[in-house]
Design a protein that fits this description.
single chain, alpha+beta, DNA polymerase, domain 1, hpI Integrase, Chain A, 4 domains, three-stranded antiparallel sheet, 18 helices
């Protein structure tokens, strides 16, 4: 049991027979609070006190959402808690002062329909309904409506693997402007380490061993994501460039971030970069005017005043490429290499071959090359000395077993040996 303050008022939090009670003691005096706490525990022991779950269900939805977020602080990371708070913005506005025990199936479906009119994706609607579900579960109310609220079918985007030309084009465009430098460095790291965007943003200098050329990911999306990744030449080159930049900005202490925050031109190595979304969107959507070869944003006419060519139909082949697709691309290239599944999973931080299959989209060209290998003529034992070549499959299927030889005979040095069948030993006689 414990006493704590909310504002100036004392509250108590205790459990009796496995039931939790969190109750306001309606006093600002600590001694009086201790006395009232004992009374509440006694009432709970004889069944005269409603549990905290029942009290929670009587709260208005907005207040219940606040308490839910407060209780999740110890369970979630800062980023996840921020996401939960963001997902509760619209549910708060819709349900407002409605108490949890009055939130029924019809009101939940009405909320989802109203949000669907905003052209939201099914995945985001499911996330909003998910946080509502967790709030209702906190008040032991979800089981009442669970059968009527089913998740919407989501369109699963498995990701995109670029062609080699697209990969080179992406890096070439990213190098063309200084304001895209951070996005360039992050892209090269993702393409050469399979790191997620959140893993790159959370990278500290203490996580990088410049001597052994490895980096360690201590915090990731999953436990399997906590891994050690060797740095190849391209990744090491980017790390050294970032280190030089960090030296210039006095931001290479062990606790400093490799990608520091930058707001209004001010660099703060103690905070991570929030996003490179704007730079990424601009560089992936940029097009080149076919007349003057000027790199620019999509438009009706060329932004070069001396050109003014019609470019309204030109679209970048990189448009729609997500930063997370770079991880997909890297895993795809690993899958097309000679690396084993275990090696790829160790590098990428996957927990199962199923996840590996989900991410590695081996391109059609690689599949065709593998299948063409099956049709190639190869030398066989029978025609090796004659210099003839034949298809192995055709040779085996058309070949016959000599009439005077048992198909089960196994010989060693020209003599028959014992062979074991499913249930007994037999001695075969050489024919």
């Amino acid at each position: 049991m414990s006493l704590f303050k909310r504002g100036k008022t004392w509250w108590t939090d205790f459990s009796v027979n496995g039931v939790r009670y969190r109750i306001s003691l309606d006093t600002v005096d600590w001694r009086e609070a201790k006395s009232r706490e004992k009374e509440k525990i006694t009432q709970a022991s004889i069944g005269k006190l409603a549990s905290s779950n029942r009290q929670f269900a009587r709260l208005a939805f907005s207040e219940a959402a606040d308490r839910y977020l407060e209780s999740r602080k110890l369970e979630l990371s800062t980023r996840s808690l921020k996401k939960e708070r963001q997902l509760l913005v619209h549910p708060r506005q819709f349900f407002g002062a409605t108490s949890l025990n009055r939130v029924d199936s019809e009101s939940l479906l009405a909320y989802r329909e109203s949000r669907a009119k905003s052209d939201l994706k099914a995945s985001y609607l499911n996330m909003e309904m998910g946080v509502i579900r967790r709030v209702l579960k906190r008040g032991k109310r979800w089981h009442i409506v669970a059968d009527d609220i089913k998740p919407l079918r989501e369109r699963h985007n498995l990701g995109r693997a670029m062609s080699q030309a697209e990969k080179l084009k992406l890096l070439r465009i990213a190098r063309s402007r200084p304001e895209w430098q951070t996005a360039l460095y992050a892209a090269i790291l993702a393409l050469n380490t399979t790191m997620r965007g959140c893993e790159i943003k959370g990278l500290h200098w203490r996580d990088i061993n410049l001597v052994d050329r490895v980096l360690t990911i201590h915090h990731s999306k999953t436990e399997a994501g906590e891994r050690v990744i060797p740095l190849n030449a391209d990744a090491m080159g980017v790390i050294l460039e970032l280190y030089k930049r960090g030296q210039f900005l006095n931001g290479i202490d062990l606790d400093h971030y490799v990608f520091p925050a930058c707001e209004n031109g001010q660099i703060d190595p103690g905070r991570p970069q929030e996003s490179w979304r704007t730079a990424w969107r601009n560089l992936t959507q940029s097009i080149v005017c076919p007349a003057c070869h000027h790199l620019q944003k999509p438009s009706e006419t060329c932004r070069n005043s001396e050109c003014n060519a019609d470019i309204h139909e030109i679209k970048s082949s990189l448009a729609g490429l997500r930063f997370h697709d770079l991880r997909h691309h890297a895993i795809t290239e690993l899958a097309e290499s000679q690396a084993s599944d275990q090696t790829i999973m160790a590098i990428a931080g996957h927990v199962s071959p199923k996840m590996l299959a989900h991410y590695s989209h081996v391109r059609l060209a690689a599949k065709r090359l593998a299948l063409d290998f099956l049709a190639q003529p190869r030398k066989t034992e029978s025609n090796h000395h004659s210099g003839q070549e034949g298809n192995v499959t055709k040779h085996v299927t058309n070949g016959t077993i000599p009439r005077n030889r048992s198909p089960y005979v196994i010989e060693k040095n020209g003599r028959p040996v014992r062979t074991r069948t499913a249930d007994l030993y037999r001695v075969k006689v050489a024919l």
